[in-house]
Amino acid sequence: MRRVAPDDKITCGTTGRSYTFGMSKDFCRRGAEALLSNTGLRPGDRVGLLLPNVPEYSLAVHASLQAGLVVTFANPLYTAHELTRQFQSAKVRCIVTIPQLMETAQAVANNLENYDCTINIGGKAVPDKKILGLESLLIPSQSIQLPEVKPDDLAVLPYSSGTTGVPKGVMLTHRNLVMNISQLMHPGIVKVNETTDDFQETVLTVLPFFHIYGFNMILNYTTLVGTHIVTMPKFTPQDYVECLIKYKPSVLFVVPSLLLFLVTHPEITAQHLSSVTQIFCGAAPMKKGLIDTFLQKINRQDCHISQGYGMTETSPGITLTPYTMPYEKSGSCGRLLPSTTARVVDPATNEDVSGPNQPGELLVKGPQVMKGYLDNQKATDEVIDSDGWLHTGDVVYYDEDEYFYIVDRTKELIKVKGNQVSPTELEYIILEIPGVADAAVVGIPDTFAGELPKAFVVRKPGFENVTPDHVQEFVNPRVAAYKKLAGGVTFVDAIPRNPSGKIMRNELKKIASSS
């Protein structure tokens, strides 16, 4: 496996701050020692990261992992209610955050059992509130032997709704993460120019590191191959355009909505993108027409656009289009990564489809597949069958050359700008409203977001005073911005359900599209 860049090369930078590879390695070692000597944390304890994309993200994660701690990521846009639910589930004993999020972090910490400390990146220590400053991660109070971290030890606990239901902790081991990166580095999959004393590629990304795509496929992978990562804590069109001009990146990591932004923004020209040679797109399906439009805008064919497919439960990579992919395969999500095996089965019979170009549910095996869901064997058994196949819940087909294409999602998740939104989670909140008898949430198409959550609500008799605004005002403060009911609220007489009581979401989508 290729190693990181020379020590004097920059690894990650943003907002005027950056770290070299040498600084990062030193910080992570000393930080790991300090975490075990300056706090009450012990190997196996859980650390919650409540951070936007800042240069210290990588340092905090890798110092924790070297100390044998387990990291769970959280969206910094989450409400205290959402964070408390996740961090209680993960049994978090330490939160790493920034001053701007400290009030929320402390509100959450007050509801966690056996809580040890909060680490304030870029802020001051407040000992009486168990808040430690950044210096606490740099100066160990005593010499300490770091633990031997084993491949099958738990490394991270990202939260995913899986194919259905409320978010669950996904147990990913060190082996899972490393093997998925190794799969990407297999010859013929990704073309990476080696970092030397005289050359270093620059990657521009705004995709969040708290998402498994951002964490393992971007942060970990690009760090290992020695690229300079440029990121932003928050996306704004002006900042993104300025980064294109200033840093002249050769590689972009995007989701379809961001590629659409590059295509449609009037200020972005072919000159802004002249340095870009590779674009990686994930988190949601990308249409071939969008790829064609982008290539027309830059007026050249030497920019390779890779599309991948994966899940939080697979670390996340399952397929990726190799850089040698023929143009006529555009629109494919790629071929299986090395050491990954798959079946495409009829969902009704679980029998393999007859051959190429026949749609069915994708089942996968591989070293990147999760250990299981945290404290939830029932949910684990529903996704990973007795033969070890992970049921993705997605309908795909493959062609004669074993390129895969996504047909539809059998799972119920809504994808808003690449973010997962669980309809069940929103339904639970809506059902808390006095006067609501039943509710269902579906995703409706949106040009820029991909999908938007839309609620269908049944009122109890005599509660005609429950209005769409009332539902919005109840739900929206309780969830992150991308989970808000931006698709609207519609009242219906009944929620359509099949004989087993499951919501018929496709019927609701038809109602939404016809209104």
TrEMBL record:
The keyword Nucleotide-binding applies. InterPro entries: AMP-bd_C, AMP-bd_C_sf, AMP-binding_CS, AMP-dep_synth/lig_dom. One of its GO terms (molecular function) is ATP binding. Residues 8-374 form the AMP-dependent synthetase/ligase domain. Its main location: other. Its EC number is 1.13.12.7. GO terms for cellular component: peroxisome. Residues 425-502 form the AMP-binding enzyme C-terminal domain. It catalyses: firefly D-luciferin + ATP + O2 = firefly oxyluciferin + hnu + AMP + CO2 + diphosphate. Keywords: ATP-binding, Luminescence, Monooxygenase, Nucleotide-binding, Oxidoreductase, Peroxisome, Photoprotein. It is found in: Peroxisome. One of its GO terms (biological process) is bioluminescence. CDD domains: Firefly_Luc_like (cd05911). Belongs to the ATP-dependent AMP-binding enzyme family. This is Luciferin 4-monooxygenase. The gene is 100121108.
